[in-house]
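# step 3/5: fold
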Amino acid sequence: MRIGSKPFYKLLLFALIALVLIMAVTITLNATRLHHAIQERTFSYVTDVTRQLTADIDNRIQKVMVDLSSLCDSLMHLDSPDALSDFLQRKTEMLGFTSIVYIGADGTVSKAASGIEEPLSLPGVQASLQGNTGVSFLNGEDILYTIPVILNEEVAGVLGGIRSKANMQELISTDCFSGTGLTCIIDSGGSVVISPTQVDPFLQLDSLFTSSPEGKTARSIRRMQEDMVSGQSGIFSFRSASGSDLILSYNPLSHFSWVLLTLVPSDVIASHVNGSMFWLYGIIGVVVVLMLLTLFALYASQRYHYRQMEEAAFTDRVTGGMTNAAFQLKCESLLPKAPANTYCIALMNIRNFKLINEHFGSEHGNDVLACIMHTLQKSMDGAEGFASRADADSFFLCLKSGTREEVARKMRQLTDSICAEVVKLRWYLGAPYSFSLQTGAYIVDNPSLEITIMQDRASMACRSRSSFEDGSCKFYDDSMLRRMRREEELNMLFESALEHHEFVVTLQPKVRLSDERIGGAEALVRWVHPQQGMIYPGEFIPLFEQNGRICRLDLYIFEEVCRTLHAWQQAGKPLFPVSVNLSRQHFSDPHFLDTYVEIATRYEIPRDMLELELTESIFFDDQGIENTKQQIKEMHRLGFRCSLDDFGSGYSSLGLLVEFDIDVIKLDRRFFLDISNAKSRDVIASIVELAHRIGLSTVAEGIETQEQLDLLKGIGCDMVQGYIYSKPLSVAEFEVWFQSREQQAG
């Protein structure tokens, strides 16, 4: 759906209305949940505070009783009334009582105390004479706490301590609940025994509760009465006759069957939250209004911004041409409607584009990209096709061509035109550089495929190994996909193959031509899979070279060779140098030889029995050459032999023999394909002679005929490796071959 169309505006309006409704419902639900949460928090808060207050009152009363109990033992040791009076006077000041009195069983009082006229009539004194603690109220102002004084297991009297009732009133007049709560102490009968100055609300509880004789409040009152009898605490809320929402908490004390009542407004916490909630809802309302205004502002200005976004999404900022997103959209609208084999998706990739940026700067690199896009647009009109930049150095093309010959011709014309235009840019720089393109194409034989799959197939063809070799346009076929899947399969099997020793070492002999005896062997690898059988090196070695697994495979082969040489050494068999291949991937690690040394040392193999074979592909740039020089020096310092494999197979030069301190060169089999040619024989003889002059041994690879062997004997080649003597053999087969060869040699 196109942004800017009327359906989009209607959808936007409905979305705005839905958004407002959702926010309103969300706010309402949140408010309800918040109300319940506040109520639960209020009950929890009131319960915690009243329990703490109850514990404080119990502790205060307990301390009084403990203080009185501590005096009882001393009373019995006083021998006169005056001594008793002096003792009680001193303890009164020490323990913070108003006065301390001793009341005999006959009602006599040791010291005159205001309000104690008939002590035996006081309920607390009566309780103590019966052996219990007691409490009495004197003149409504003081509290008399009493304990029995036991002598010879009988109650001899009562010791009492008088404290002001105001002390207890001060304790229950808590500052909790922001000063809005009221607390009092009642007895089990419901009578108020200690209250703050504002006692009216508690005195009027009966009238407050009777307004709902059969409702929830009445049930809560009955439950409270039952809990008070059983010593349980509780809390409930109710609405008073005046319309106030209140919370009543009751907590039994552990002394005198008293109960602590606390009366708190229901909004003791909510009162602090309501103001914040008011501001919160106000802020939310303002935010909603601002959101609506913002959305309407976006709605009003989207036409202008749409064109800008479209340009940013579909126009490449470097080249000014299509982006890949625009290319895919155009293909999606065009290709599915066309018959099969009408169009072609191609990829054009700049080789070594990063070197251009590195040497001449990214600005010139961008000029090259813009030049390519301009040339493609000029060379293709709308009927011929269109192009886009895929990524940093690649371009996708859609050509109206259905045959390989036609596509190849068009791609050649395009690459020639691009190279001609880029040459002009190089001329302005005053410094030429290598510029070439590799191309791959997929002829759309299945228009229903996703565009990305078509592009992947073109990329697969472009990046196939053959496309790097001759520079021609390569075309996708199913074998490429099969090869990619096969490579993925081999990668997945690699770890298991190492673990289960599926990689098998074979040895191909190197025979000295001087005496026809063995002079060494080359370790080669074969992959024997338990289900798939033999997997040949040409299938997995290049793959593992690309992904770096070749290093682990090289180390595996090296260790297998060392294990074999160790077994021969233990059996008293003669040793000879065995060469193992060394991938250039190892040279990225300056310390890779440490592992080779550790393996050779572990198996106690003489270092000169191990030869590391390098290929000329290691020498890929100046930095690589210098690194290789140092590593070869290190190989010799550690005692390993070093050989140059496949000499003459690629870009080998005689300069390599001067630059590098190698021990052996191995002449590639290509030298011996046409030895009937006198020029070929002269070249071979010259290389062998030169090698001998500079102290190198020579090995000829791939020798299969007697004619080749006679030539090599005639020019003085040191050793020969090839099927004329033996194919690569398993270790067991090699041992048999070696024994037979030695017996023949005498």
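# step 4/5: annotate
The first strand starts at residue 99 and ends at 104.
# step 5/5: archive (pending)
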